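Service request form, structural biology core

Requester: graduate student, group of Dr. S.
Request type: structure prediction, single chain
Budget code: on file
Notes: please return the result as structure tokens.

Sequence provided:
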Amino acid sequence: MIHRMILEMRFSVVLAFSVCVPSLVCVADDHSHGTTGRSVQPPTVFLDKSPRIVAYQLNRLDSERLLMVPRQTDDVKYIPVYEAILSRDGMSPQFRQESVAALAKLRETSVAEETLAALEKIKLDDRQGKRTAKVLAEMLLDQPVATLKQSKAMLEDAASDADEPFVRSVGLAALIQIGDAASAWSIAAADDESTLAWLDAVGLVPGSPQRLALRDHVVELIENAKSEKVRNHAITAMSEIASQPSETFDLIAPFVADPSYRSAAVRTLLRVPVKQRPSKTSQALVATLVDLAESTAPAERTTAQFVDAMQLADQMMAAVPAEQAKSYRNRLREVTVRVVRIRAVEEEMRYDIPYFAVEAGRPVQIVLENHDLMPHNLVVTAPGALKEVAQAGAVVGSAGGWKDLPFVPALDSVLAASEMVQPDQLDRITFDAPTEPGEYPYVCTFPQHWYRMYGVMVVVKDLDAWMKNPEEPANPIGSNRSFVQAWKLDDLQGEIENGMKGRSPHIGARIFAEASCQGCHKVGSEGGVIGPDLTEVFTRYKGDRAAVLREIIDPSHKVDAKYAMHQILTVEGRVVTGIILNEDKDNVTVLENPEAKEPTVISQDDIEEMVQSPNSMMPKGLMDQYTQDEIFEMLSFLEKADPNKTPAP
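Core staff response, request fulfilled:
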């Protein structure tokens, strides 16, 4: 029997969609695509039956069919439909927001009350339940402060009496968010479990100023807590408070010597910016960590905790005098190779480390951790070979090339490569660094990912000398862009009308190409065909500039399940990721990647598990390296390119 669950996965290209929901509204989205041949019939659901029978009917539906069930806000019989959508794993924000607003109207309650009620029903015993609970918590805490204040009594009840600790943390975070940190702290003081819930609430609080006000209480718990568990949570909570980083480093560093607190302490210290780490404390800590490495049993030198500790030691070598650093480095080489941990950032299709350095000819281990929602790999290439290797990898496909690894071509310019790492998994690749100093790119070779997912391994003769005065390598694909801002629609919406005046379509077209949009999307006669044609995007959105801008800034706001990515696990352990083109009782037909020559057909009998994405296949953060003016230039370009749209003055 196929076990269906929802797992958030993403793909690298934008596929447009439009879906008409019976008895509701027709939702047109810029993410429609014509390749899918699926024809899904709306389900028949009897909403006049008992609540138990209605719930049974709805639970049997996948997300796509659930969204086809009629729903309106003029009859309480639709409440079970909205409840199912709100709490369904993997549902996109658009439909959750629609559902919580509808429930508040039908029950004459508030959005905050309905969100909290749904949160309390979520089962937190698996990854998907936890992810859904996190999404609902963010929805609640994102409500205007004035709105949350109206539900203060309810929030206090949740903070004090909820059975699930996470729900208590959400209630406490909401109290802090509305400016009643005193009440939250009073509740936290009741017992250790309440204190733990308060500490876990620190990272949930949306605003940095609100978190800053909690720092003194966190410090007090770090210094005076009698419970080891409370102190560990307090050390972790300190990593969520960005103020006074140097003081935080001095406060937490001594706990590295204690095995009971080492793991939490190292993780918190790693989040303190390198330039904010006091030199004296750093030097003492390096000595502690080198001693730790030498005393750690070989079998334990591959654990996440050990890798974290060695990463921290490596980062702080620059604070140590040169000769002493060289001595420490030699001691570490006797017991472990140089380890570099690289993480795939969730939903952003990028590595968290843009470059790192290794010593020529020395062994190095790269640990690739995938915290994104779809598979990624890491391939180290010869200088200047990134694009060649990535494009050849797409041709090789899942059949494999270099050492039979999927999407890795058998080229001399491939120096090292990982497996295709699944979500929440990791892979280690160990190799000797090249003997020739230089800048060696690394890249994800899954089709189309190389536009954004890359970095540089800098090979140097003397690693300690380089770390004393590190030089950022050249961007391997020639981009000179740097981070500007993590843009949200609210940052731009109020400026749209004035911001669109006097724009040049030539500048907008250049930005459209530079931001890699043109690789997937066509405007007029130019551009790619992987994603939707954007020539008439303003016509589709009826000239609504804010709606088009939302699709650029917040691509996951609207996602139709019909066009979501799926991950299929076969009974033999094979993982297939792609868009379902067709599904019947015998087979599932999947398009694995945009450059696949033929779809993959999998027998239903061979499927162990099939899970669906709620997110857009377009990564977020595409415009975070562009200014407000540049974003409006590109938006103006799309508007003026639409032959059916009369541009605003």
